[in-house]
Amino acid sequence: MADMVVGTSMAASLPRQRTLLVGTVLATAGTLMYFVGLFGVYLRERAEALGSSGDWIPSGADIQLAQPTLAAWTMMMSVVTMQWVVYSVARNDRTHAIIAAGVTAMFGVSVIITTSFQYTQMGLVADESLAATLIYTISASHLAMITVGLVFLGIMVFRALAGNHISRQTDGFVAASVFWYAVVVVYVVIWTAIFVLK
Q1: Distance of CA 58 to CAs 52, 62, 63, 83, 124, Å?
Q2: 170-198 pLDDT, tens per residue?
Q3: Which residue segment(s) compose the domain that 149 sits in?
Q4: Share of residues in the chain with pLDDT > 70 (%)
Q5: 5 to each of 11, 14, 16, 112, how far by Cα in Å?
Q6: How many domains does the chain have?
Q7: pTM confidence score
Q8: Confidence bin at 15 (pLDDT 50/70/90)
Q9: pLDDT at 32
Q10: Phi, psi (5° rounding) for residue 60?
Q11: Helix axes 19-52, 130-162, angle to 10 degrees
Q12: Residue 145 belongs to a domain with what CATH number?
């Protein structure tokens, strides 16, 4: 009888597995639904404007494809480095995990800088037209998503640095990578729907 009580109390003290991963998947799904709604509004309004007047982007705007393409390739390269983070953490390789996380963070920051530079070059005024408002809303929401992904990755790196065995933090890094992959997918859709199709 005493063994059964001890066994029950020990089983109750074990932490739940994959809680962070499940929560991140649900939050990522909610974020993706937000962007699906934004893209739906953008594409509907664009189709209506092109059907009625033939113009969607204001005439004074200069939306180049170079900066968004650079950002898209940078985001796609970050998928490789984020997977490198997960691979290194699962193998308890602290050095490579930190290097890979640093490179991933560098890619994320460079996309933020590239997008900020693009804002100065586009010549769009946010309240000038519906197109400008939607373009800024979608791209600024994505910048916020990148920032959340970078903070999430930073927290996971800090947690890994605080412990002896980083392989115990695998679920957290997998959760951060799931969110980061969603960041990349959203940017590829932004690049296609806004900057390529214009």
Answers
A1: 15, 9, 10, 40, 8
A2: 889 999 999 999 999 999 999 999 999 88
A3: 19-51+72-196
A4: 91
A5: 10, 15, 20, 55
A6: 1
A7: 0.88
A8: low
A9: 98
A10: -80, -5
A11: 170
A12: 1.20.120.80
177 to each of 5, 15, 70, 147, how far by Cα in Å? 40, 22, 21, 14
The Cβ of residue 190 has, within 10 Å, a number of other Cβ atoms equal to: 25
- Distance (Å) of CA 118 to CA 65, 106, 135, 140, 185: 10, 18, 12, 12, 20
1 lies in a domain? no
**pLDDT score recorded for residue 13:** 62
Specify if 63 maps to a domain. Answer: no
Would 6 be classed as within a structural domain?
A: no
Q: CA 183, CA 107: separation in Å to the nearest integer?
A: 12
Has residue 57 been placed in a domain?
no
Q: Which residue intervals of the chain are DSSP H helices?
A: 2-13, 19-52, 66-90, 94-122, 130-162, 170-190
